[in-house]
Design goal:
homodimer, 85 residues, Cytochrome Bc1 Complex, Chain D, domain 2, 4 helices
Chain lengths: 85, 85
């Protein structure tokens, strides 16, 4: 199971893009998705897809590759525990 | 720009999976993502990625292929206008 406290620390990185309303993806240009309150298992699935390259996005693939399976679970446990914004 | 009223009609289909808390994707098994209140441009980007096959998910690719560009904008206008759940 994910460790929410560790996830809270790890999402410091995510907030650089996902925590700022209206922050745009570089190309193609669109606001990055909201992730607060998202389903834990969907977050886990998405991060593993980026890590494996099944889902392609340069920044998110790099993030996925930098995370262990446990860290991905920790991030999902934290994000799914907070309210959507 | 998207037509919220038409989007509201179109999301009837989405709600079969996305509108029911805890509904699982078939394989790999995980809860489908929450989409209410998501950023409009992210929804547009995701549906176009499914439509083109850049993002692969059998059900969502079929949905993307069934939608016109205008219908995708309508869905995004509606979903981004409602509160996250």
């Amino acid at each position: 199971a994910g460790d929410k406290a560790n996830g809270r620390t790890l999402v410091y990185t995510c907030n650089g893009c996902h925590g700022v309303p209206g922050t745009n993806n570089a190309y193609p240009q669109y606001p990055v998705p909201k992730i607060a309150g998202q389903n834990a298992q969907y977050i886990i699935s998405a991060l593993h897809e980026y890590k494996s390259g099944d889902r392609t996005h340069p920044t998110m693939m790099a993030q996925g590759q930098s995370l262990s399976d446990q860290e991905i679970e920790d991030i999902a446990a934290y994000l799914s525990s907070i309210s959507p914004k």
